[in-house]
Each structure stands twice: as C-alpha cells, then as structure tokens.
Amino acid sequence: MESFFRLRRDTVGEGVMSLHPEVAKFIGITRPAERLICFGSQSVRAIVYTSQSLKENYASISSDLLDELNIPLNCHYEILLKGNEIHFGPFISLLAGNTDKSIEKKLDDLLDYLLYYKEIKGAVLVFSIEGVNKETQTINGYLYNPKSKQWEKGTYPYPSSIFVLTKKASSKWIKHFKSIIGDAVFNDFHYNKWNIHKILKTSYNVKESLPHSILYESPDDLYSFLQRYSKIMVKSISTSKDSSIYKISKENNYLVITHPQKGESKKIKFSEQEQVYELFSKYFKNGQYMIQQSIELQTTHDRTIDFRVIVIKNPDGKWQVMNMFARQGKPGTVLSNIYPYVELGKETLQEVWDLNDVKTAMMMKDISDKSIEAVRVIEEKGVHFANASVDIKVDENEDIWILDVQHRNPSHEIALVAGFPDLYYEILKTNMLYAKKLAGFI
Predict the structure, then answer these.
(1) For the range 323-326, what are the long-range contacts, defined as Cβ-Cβ under 8 Å and sequence gap of 24 or more?
(2) Which of 44, 149, 172, 268 is deepest in the core (most CB within 10 A)?
(3) Whole-model pTM?
C-alpha cells in the first residue's frame, strides 16, 4: 500500500465514498458503512463502499461531498482514523500577511517550505487575514499543487493547523482561529523587545545572562545609565526591520553617538547637563526605546561578532537547536547584521576564542541550553511558541549574554548565507512537520 492517497471525483454517485477493499479492511470496513469524512474544519457524512476497480492509493468521493468539503484533488493525502471519522490530511497553512497583495510577493519564497513535500504531504495553504470569511469559515488563499509545484488560488475551509508568519494577525484573529481549530495555531503572539526582556528577566536561570537594561522614559534615564556604563546601546523596542539602534559612549566632555544602520557617527561636545537632555529628547521618544549596557566582544579583523541560535520544535513537539551561526559585521561597525560575514558558530568560537575541542563543545552546549531555556520561559506565559532564533553575544571573558529572542517569522536564510542550503531546507521542513503534528498526522 502506498504511503499516500489520491482523490478522484465520482460523478455518478451521491453522498458516497469508495475505497479499495484492502484499504477499507485496514480501516475496519468490510461492508457499506456510514462514516464522517473530514477535511480541515469541514466534515460530511458519507456511505463508504469498496471497489475493486480502484487502486489501493486512490479514494473516490462523489461530487456533492467534494464540493461541500472544498477538498482539492491534486494533493497527496494521508488517512487518519478517529472513531467513526475518516480524516484526509494533513491540511496545514501559513498565515503570511494582512492582505492578499502582501502575500503575493512572498509566494515564490514560501515554496521553500515545500521542498520536502513528499514527507509533509496533504494540503498546504498560504493565506492572508483579508482572505478569511468568518461567517462561512472559508479562506480565499493559495494552495500548493505538488504536480505543478506552484500555488493555485481558490477557496477552502479552515485548515487543521496554522503557522503564523506575520505580526499583522491580531489577538482577536488568533482567538477566532483557536475557537474553531483548537490549540493548533503556533507563533500566535507578538511581543516587542522590551516585552521579551521583561519576560526573560522573570527566570532565575536566564536573567543572569541578560545585559542590564531599562526602558527609556526620560533623558535622565539615559544620562544616569551613562554614568554607570561608559558604552551603552539604545534600541527601538519595535521588532520591525527598520527599527533604530544607537551606540553611545562618553569621552570626557564629549558624547559619541553612532547610528550603525546609517553609517553615521557624531562627536558632540557638551558643557552642561541640560545640553545632553536636549540632545536625547531630539533623538529618542519616551517609552519607545530601551537602554542596554554594551557587551564588549571579541573581534577579528576589527569585526563585531555575535551569534544566532536557531531553536524550533521538532515533530515530537520538543525544542531543538538546529544550529548556531556566527555573524561578523563590516570592519569598524558595531552591528553584526550589516553585510555580515556568516559561518557556523562552532568554527568561530574555536578560532576567535582559541578554544580546544572539549572547551568548544562545552560552550556550544551552554549556549544551546541557555537558548532553549529562553524560549521555554516565553512559552510559559501561555503562548504557543515553536519557531524562534535567539541572539547571543559572548564577551572577552567567555560569558554568554542573551540579547533578544526573535519570535515572529525569524529569517532562517542565515543558513543559506553561511553556505548550508541543506540545513536551511531541513529547518523549514521541521517547521512544517510540527504543523503536521498539530494537524494530527504525526
């Protein structure tokens, strides 16, 4: 028997489904029997017959039931039995944007998730919030056709699981989806950087690895912080790609303000505290930035180094570190994500910190453990979390610092930049297999 099933339309019968006798016997049917046929959130009653004319990996469903279920015929399905219910699936989806126009730009890139379709199988839908009809509980979206390996637009029922790839999905929408399909919506939340820091700080095991940070609420906060640390970072708490970050240092009666993203650096002389306050008020809005001690790093060839640890849930539902990458910024910059040089983190640790194999393995394990602990702390807040990357720095004393946890569609293309396409596709496949598990097919 094949590991997947194909469906075909029965244009003669009504309210019926037919299976090969061996398949029917496998699911406990030896004579015509009524069963509930399920696809995603939709279900219909059918009389199940056997037919010797069908191949073992085919099922025939009458047109009226196919149309009611909105089930596509081009996909490769698995069959799941739940009592008297027969489920065809998995039916999983990627919520990729707020509007149809926004997701159309992403469709080619989203094909990366389907390179291993033969292991995922089922129906895979990409959709936007705009495409959802709450009243009919249907979605206008793009379904993957494994034959053409392209997306095809159509209308389908709600899926069995949803992988959220956009911060545009409000909590109201998430609650709505969960009210229909249960706790099968993952990465279902959006926190800003300050929210993440406050959550991580609640953990005894994690907080000691966090740089000292406060929320910017007045120029005095920043001025006082500079009295304690000679070099600090001021970061926008927004998680958008164009969010700002500044490095500020104090040198006698001068302030050096560096804006790495723009490649700008200003050295400003001041004689009075009020001048500094006025300057800070010009640059920063209260409550929109966080102030953080600057972690002094090992550098090679005058490059700043940090690490990105990819942490996702595997098909068993357990957190797993897929790998760690070292990012080295342009010479002289304070950010490592500006035109970075990327390689596997293990190689960088060993070379830059001059570690032997045993010490490298210990450091790698410590970083992995801290990264998994960080995502677990966030998960304990009651969110459904399964796809993350953790940004880490290691200082000159080999102490490990957690800078941030990327939780809303963190880019795993860093594996491609580092020259590991197989790892990149393995990460995306693991994401999809977790979605398949939530749909009930693992």
Answers:
(1) 323/415, 323/420, 323/423, 324/364, 324/367, 324/368, 324/392, 325/414, 325/415, 325/418
(2) 44
(3) 0.92
Token look-up 């545009």 returns 168
Residue that the structure tokens 């396409």 belong to: 421
Tens-digit pLDDT profile for residues 375-433: 999 999 999 999 999 999 998 889 999 999 999 889 899 999 999 999 999 999 999 99
Query: Which tokens sit at 226?
Result: 């500079």
Task: Work out the number of other CB atoms within 10 angstroms of the CB of residue 170.
Answer: 12
Q: How far apart are CA 180 and CA 183, in angstroms?
A: 9
Work out the average pLDDT over 171-191.
Answer: 96
Q: How far apart are CA 180 and CA 162, in angstroms?
A: 12
Alpha helix stretches (DSSP H) within 72-170: 100-104, 107-110, 117-120
Residue type present at position 305: I
* Cis bond before residue 331 (omega within 30° of 0): no
Q: At residue 122, does pLDDT exceed 80?
A: yes
